[in-house]
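Example record

The entry below shows one chain as it appears in the dataset: sequence first, then structure tokens.
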Amino acid sequence: MFSRRTDWKLEPNRFTLARLEMLRAGREILDLTISNPTRADIEYDEAAILDAFRDPRALGYDPQPKGLRSAREAVAEYYAGLWPSGAESSNGGASASFDPESLILTASTSEGYSYVFRLLCNPEDEVLAPKPSYPLFDFLAELQDVKLAGYPLLYDHGWQIDWPALVSGVGEKTRAVVVVHPNNPTGSYASGEERSRLNELCSRRGLALIVDEVFLDYAHDGRSRESFFANDGALTFTLSGLSKISALPQMKLAWIAVSGPGPDVNAAMARLEIIADTYLSPNAPVQLAARMLLEQRRKIQPQLMARVLANLAELDRQLGAEKACTRLKVEGGWYAVLRVPATRSDEDLAIEILRATSVLVHPGHFYDFPRDGYLVLSLIARQDIFREGTARLLKVLGHR
């Protein structure tokens, strides 16, 4: 009765079952996996956000396949604000152009991926995605009948692309390379050199770049990182949205920015517009509120960055007394990766920690780490929870 693409294993995994067991027993859990900013005790400007939805134009229906022009202009202004005046792109291109006509609005970055996969791939075509990275890619690819293959990120005083593996992974059915900038959970940005090499590879092999930038604004050193929004070295689809930029995942507004060689961009936009016209996903109220909601980042991002940096400093302080585990270098985003003794599977270790200390952390295999010995912690947990949870976690690791 059901399609093969939904033939998933639907039973909860052991990690989920252990968490449910703790909740049913009434145990309070210190959650160091939190990814929902609306549950992280961040202070929102409630009046401004709610007032943004009082626009009477929301009562009318004006379907625009690419999204309302006013919302696309607001997104283009956001990118223009990231770009230094007169700057050139790192691949040697001209100064950035922020044309609202190069944008397609979607309800989420997940929907954006679906649009782009549909645009680029026939059934069983292949997309290369980094490992480790966010596990959602597997489901998105399967739902679009796309084969997902991984290329490794290597760690040596920081993360970098394994170039021989990436190049050798390109086959006849490869259509695109996914780059997460910065990666989730490693927190590593694509360097200028990597960007140039990606452009050269994709241009030479006729591939597209799909760049996920949802955490772009959260650089830990406070220095802005260059977006791929205006990348012109290869056909590029840059994805982002309100979920992380303004910490408003419930508002369901994201986008695809298309850049690259002119003929390729024109052909892609013509096709994407028809795909978007078929779904007409983003609702009118959130599009009309887009400018105000994007402005909220100016109040939200400083709070989140203060939380991230404070928790990272606390983690380093506590790790200073430990020899059993270390923290891997992180440049941006909301997560930290611990390297721990690989005496058992990461899932077994995470379950042991949960049952012994009521602290919830993610095992590395959730993010396709190549081997055991990694745990992933969220840095947006409330500081008192993070401090206590980390202390309990390291106590277990130090006595194993």
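Notes for this example: The CA atoms of residues 110 and 140 lie 7 Å apart. The first strand starts at residue 30 and ends at 31.
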